[in-house]
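Sample A.
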Amino acid sequence: MNTEPYEKYLIDTVLPQLEQGRPGWDKPHTVHVVEYVKKIIDNEPTVNTDKDALVVVAYLHDYGYMFFKDVLKSGPTKGIAKTQHAKKSAEYWTKIQDNEVFSAFSDTQKERINHLIVVHDEVEHLHAHDELLFMEADTLGALAMGNFQNIDNDVYQKYLNSVEQRRITRFVTDYAKAHAEKFIAKARK
């Protein structure tokens, strides 16, 4: 499948809108996640998953935060924005999935994209291979951002501990494990 038309569409329409959710985070984080989806799949020859579907998921997974911009201004992303952004992202996907640029995607692929968007932050409930691969890319995309908000070091270290315990222990590819370890080691210095 030629990825250019749908990816160009997502770059042109989705990326600019991401700054409306969590400015300074959603857009660069998304770019990192897209990059890591591709790298994980390309660097793991035994990975048998739908790269095109995961790339779409990468662009859209945090799109829903833009619907909570007022909530996000008043506090951390916990609460309604954290729990509902994926649902809003999936709703947006259902609105655009019939665009001509997605015509090469089967109904099964479109349903899977929707599912992956909805469940991407339900870390403890992820079991399917594509769910875990996307969680790896999402985690690496967050770690690549470092402590960009310059939050208190103790709070950041707790975050890193949580990532190690809740996410990295569930990684299935050597590529992602190695990169996560590098990011964690660098952040701990």
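Sample B, a different protein:
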Amino acid sequence: MSRLVGIQYKPAKGADPIEVKEGVLIDGFGLYGDVRCKSRRPLTLLSVELWNSAVAEAGVPGTPWNRRRSNLAAEGLPPLAGLIGKTLEIGKTVVEIFGEVDPCDMLEGVAPGLMKATEPDFRGGIWCKTVIGGVIRVGDEIRVIDGQ
């Protein structure tokens, strides 16, 4: 079973992310309060298992997921590449998966080599848009609701 294990948002460009236990997804957009909520890639989701592989490969095991600055972190997801074009139910909300989040050079500030370590297998996460908004909470179940 897949579960939401983390939620965070950046209130402004250059601000540090704020980790929360619950948030609100806005129909057609992303996470309320996030600076990227209404951008082209309004919501990002990271697999904790893939992140842990990347940080171990970069020589910094145990680096927390929130250093990636993704909005959502999940455990137990199926392979992320297979989710493109599909929808996920997160609690009572629904999001559509559009693509891979490209690793950025900010990761080199976390650890040299981390950007390269996030390149394979969608380790940098995926981006989504909200189809059905509402409240999400850490611990919510995540289910693939189409294409499986």
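Observation for Sample B: The first strand starts at residue 2 and ends at 9.
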